[in-house]
Amino acid sequence: MVDVPRAVNGTVGGIDLSGLCPGWCTERIEGRLVARRLGSLTDYQLGHGCMSEVTAGSITELVVVCEAQNTLAERIEVAETVRRGFSGPAS
Questions:
Q1: What is the 3-state secondary structure (H, E, C) of the chain?
Q2: 20-26 long-range contacts, Cβ below 8 Å, gap at least 24?
Q3: pTM for the full model?
Q4: pLDDT tens-digit profile, the chain (91 residues)
């Protein structure tokens, strides 16, 4: 993707998205909305479909994608915990 600094306050076009996309920093880059996670993901989460950055064409799409990614990350975290419980440290 594009290497740009993160937006400080999560506003896009004067709209504050921090309440709509919790855990994400949002900004507009070249006509697209870009959201980057504020926290980090584990290798296990990254290997199972979680993304640290997403893009969208509209605010509604961005909110839905960020929410879906948050849910996925939470569920993958549970799977990682279960895996560790059965086989020791996650690889």
A1: CCCCCCCCCCEECCEECCCCCCCEEEEEECCEEEEEECCCCCHHHHHCCCCCEEEECCHHHHHHHHHHHHHHHHHHHHHHHHHHHHHCCCC
A2: 20/59, 20/63, 20/66, 21/62, 21/63, 21/66, 21/67, 22/70, 23/66, 23/70, 24/66, 26/62
A3: 0.76
A4: 333 344 444 666 666 777 889 999 999 999 899 999 999 999 999 999 999 999 999 999 999 999 999 999 999 999 999 998 866 565 5
